[in-house]
From TrEMBL:
One GO term (biological process): mRNA export from nucleus
One cellular component term from this protein's GO annotations in UniProt: THO complex
Organism: Daphnia galeata
The protein's name in its UniProt record: THO complex subunit 6
Residue spans of the WD repeats: 157-196
Family: Belongs to the WD repeat THOC6 family.
SMART domains referenced in this protein's UniProt entry, alphabetically: WD40
């Protein structure tokens, strides 16, 4: 009889190893699942059953809370735990599972967050910075710039009034999208936002029935794209004017967005991933196994550019050339 928890697994975060041959997926049960991606695409000489390859080669617990923040930096997997960031060595994680050996973190950075019955001790989002640093958006509604080498918080960025879903960094410019309905743009040398975008105040973007929350933001040198309850909007970064409404016909909220070459990849609060152009034209509408997409992760080194899509249900879709669902792997509870 299957474990009933397995029916309620949700993939909230993903990260690739430096070699991009292994995938880490964080779940709502506080577990990290490690998948050997390379083995899925190796030729099977005997054409035997490969079902075991769709399960993680290693699964270990990090926290009793959902793992919403995860990233890779150098040879480390960074995981946002309770009031801390834990670092795990990829060299150890990619070794086959040893039932007698417990996976332990190599180091931990205490974020010293205020405690409020546990509600402020979470790490909701995390991205890499420069020189072995990370930006961690936490339950206190602040972004903490963390020096991982010395194990301390350098400084905090305050300006949001609710938890932060997403961040994007280009040079010294940081953007963050929040449940409070705003996108803050920061100079990383200052602690207060230099600009604030409020998408739901744009009549073309506003969707009152979905709310004002902004679930995703991405930025490059010239453009910023963001969405959530409001439609996905493309903003010119220098003038901060809204240039284009994207996916105007789709009725779902937006949970993920990223720039990739000439496309914008969008993960929805529904069973689809879109690829669209800056003009708004849709090039791909891909159905997904997860009924709600909460995490997307893209290979950057491999010529195939595999896209990994996780969300509700515990399955992770592996899409070849970022456009076609090819395989599905499953996280354990």
């Amino acid at each position: 009889m299957p474990n009933i928890k397995s029916f309620y697994v949700t993939v909230l975060s993903e990260a690739l190893s430096p070699c991009e041959e292994f995938l880490a997926a964080g779940t709502n049960f506080g577990n990290v699942n490690i998948f050997n991606i390379k083995s899925l695409y190796e030729e099977d000489e005997h054409h035997g059953p490969r079902d075991h390859l769709t399960l993680p080669q290693k699964c270990f617990s990090v926290s009793n809370k959902p793992l919403q923040a995860m990233t890779s930096l150098n040879d480390n997997l960074l995981v946002g735990g309770k009031n801390c960031i834990e670092g795990f060595s990829w060299n150890q994680l990619i070794l086959p599972q040893n039932s007698d050996q417990k996976v332990k973190s190599c180091w931990t950075v205490d974020l010293r967050l205020p405690t409020d019955f546990g509600t402020k001790e979470t790490v909701d989002c995390m991205i890499n910075g420069e020189n072995f640093t990370a930006f961690a958006a936490c339950g206190d509604n602040n972004i903490h710039h963390v020096d991982l080498e010395y194990g301390k918080v350098k400084h905090a960025f305050s300006g949001h009034t609710d938890f932060i879903h997403s961040m994007s960094l280009v040079g010294n410019q940081l953007s963050s999208a929040s449940e409070d309905g705003t996108v803050c743009i920061w100079d990383t040398r200052k602690s207060k936002p230099v600009h604030v975008i409020t998408p739901h105040l744009e009549s073309k973007l506003n969707r009152p029935h979905l709310g004002k929350w902004v679930g995703a933001v991405a930025m490059n040198e010239d453009w910023l794209v963001c969405g959530g309850g409001p439609h996905l909007g493309l903003y010119h970064l220098r003038s901060l004017t809204m240039s284009k409404v994207l996916l105007e016909e789709d009725a779902h909220g937006v949970n993920n967005v990223m720039f990739h070459e000439d496309n914008i990849i969008v993960g929805l609060d529904g069973p689809f991933v879109y690829h669209c152009l800056f003009s708004g034209d849709i090039t791909v509408k891909m159905p997904t196994t997860p009924l709600r997409v909460y995490s997307i992760c893209l290979q950057k080194k491999d010529t195939n550019k595999l896209l990994f899509v996780g969300g509700s249900g515990g399955d992770v879709d592996i899409c070849t050339s970022t456009k076609l669902q090819d395989q599905v792997v499953r996280c354990l509870s």
